[in-house]
Each structure stands twice: as structure tokens, then as C-alpha cells.
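Quick one, C-alpha cells below:
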């Protein structure tokens, strides 16, 4: 598992860890039931506070991406297809908002935008 901390980023470190692990789970880079590094181990590797790493893991567990077994560690949760669908829908909505904003700046009508979408879907 690769985690990169960008100290120049405006995002808190726990959020960077959370986002990167979540992305790796969604993309399939981390398999269901795969063990994650221990909280202490990851904190030591990244040279950050154990509290920061624990916060990232807690957020991932709260959202159902990982689970914890006492005395054994944290593991990737089996993929919840509904959870993944919701995550992808959220991403699509973000992209659509950007597309609409760009189409307004270009003066495209709704029909022209739909034509572009239909054309792209045919390919």
C-alpha cells in the first residue's frame, strides 16, 4: 500500500491518508480482507502522529471501507456494491456540475450538450 503525504496540500494529513486508502479500495488495488498496516506502523512509516493515522482509519471504518478485529488489526471490508455505487454517483455528479459550468461559459445549449453526451456514449 502506497501513501504519499503532501505537506503543501491544504488537506489535513488524516484526510490525505483516508482519501488514498479509500481510492485504493475502490479501484481494487486493495483486496477484500487484506490486512492494512497497523496504525502504529503506518504512523512510524509516514513519520506522523498515531492519533492522525487512527483518525483516518476510524473514518474509513465508519464509512464501511475497513473493519477492525481486536488484537489482529484492520482489514479491507468486502466491497459493498451499494456503497461503491453511491461513491461513483457522487463523482459523476461532481463531473456533471463541472461540465455544466463549462458549457455555460462556451454558450452551449442544453440540447447541444445532450448531443455531445449521446455521441460520446455511442463510442
Amino acid at each position: 500500500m502506497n501513501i504519499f503525504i503532501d505537506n503543501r496540500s491544504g488537506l489535513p494529513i488524516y484526510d490525505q491518508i483516508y482519501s488514498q486508502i479509500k481510492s485504493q479500495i475502490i479501484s481494487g488495488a486493495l483486496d477484500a480482507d487484506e490486512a492494512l498496516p497497523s496504525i502504529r506502523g503506518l504512523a512510524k512509516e509516514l513519520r506522523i502522529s498515531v492519533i492522525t493515522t487512527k483518525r483516518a482509519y476510524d473514518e474509513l471504518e465508519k464509512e464501511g471501507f475497513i473493519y477492525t478485529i481486536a488484537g489482529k488489526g484492520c482489514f479491507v471490508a468486502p466491497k459493498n456494491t451499494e456503497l461503491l455505487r453511491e461513491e461513483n454517483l457522487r463523482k459523476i455528479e461532481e463531473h456533471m456540475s463541472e461540465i455544466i459550468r463549462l458549457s455555460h461559459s462556451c454558450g452551449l445549449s442544453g440540447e447541444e450538450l445532450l448531443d455531445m453526451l449521446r455521441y460520446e456514449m455511442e463510442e
